[in-house]
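Lab notebook, bench 4. The sequencing result for the construct came back, and we need a structural model before the next group meeting so we can plan mutations. Quick request posted to the team channel:

Model the 3D structure of this chain.
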Amino acid sequence: MYLHRTFDGGEPTLARRYDDAFVASPEYRATLPDMNDSVDSIEGARVPIQQVGVSNFKLPLKFAVEGNEAMVLEASVTGSVSLDANLKGINMSRIVRSFYEFKGETFTLDTLAHILESYRRDVGAMSARVRVNFSYPMLLRSLRSDNEGYQFYRAAFEAAVGPDGAVRRYADIDFVYSSACPCSAELSEHARDIRGAYAIPHSQRSKARVRVEVAAGASLSIEDIVLHCREALKTETQVIVKREDEQAFAEMNGAYIKFVEDAARLVYERLAADARIRDFQVACSHLESLHSHDAVSVICKGVPGGFQADFMDFQSLVC
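Done. Here's the predicted structure in token form:
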């Protein structure tokens, strides 16, 4: 069915229909208008925009796995570039196309840096930024039983380039662990020793959000960052648990009791000793089982001009 509309003054009649047989030739495409070239149509203040782009476009990407074949994961991409005051806008599909040009490659921080440079050149921007969020699975063995299961880590790779052309690379993870309160542990032992009262120290699920800047020329994987957190904090939450594993986890919490301040310093110690990590920020949150509020701490390496301990989005650390 066609809907026709006739205009006065001898204008032609237009048919509202979709022509699925039409082919856009190169000559036809050359006639298409581009609003981004229309400087006179800029709305609002004619000022630069620091970031403009796309968020949460998804595609499957291959990620390297230490000791195994690469695995394909769903990735969510955010990409942006700077915009000059005299430009109306950017062709945002170029950001998407830049990623698809690399979709067959095994994805690393270096791959991300190449994509960043590619779409910055395509768009003609002074600065650019791209971030890839994904959920990264790793097999975690049970503490004492012969079982293993997949632990998933919220993870991200990010790269940014400024007007000076220097590319900076970042990696983020969330690491979930158990924290047993040292004060509560001592008070529980006191109740047992002095009064013969059965008492249980309080512990809670906790989370460390770790953000690192990778040194120029260095290679760092998600597994590397997870291992740092695992070795620093010891009490990672478990996947598959039998009775002997539950007992082992109780013993482990007793062996590695920690305040939220301890957690931040323990992770700091591991990250600061890795020469591949130029800078880092660690935000820890202990979802208190004693209090109605959470205990939090933030620490950074202290590199001049680097990360600051200004993290305040603690709600996002709810496990």
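The chain has a mean pLDDT of 88.
Will bring this to the meeting.
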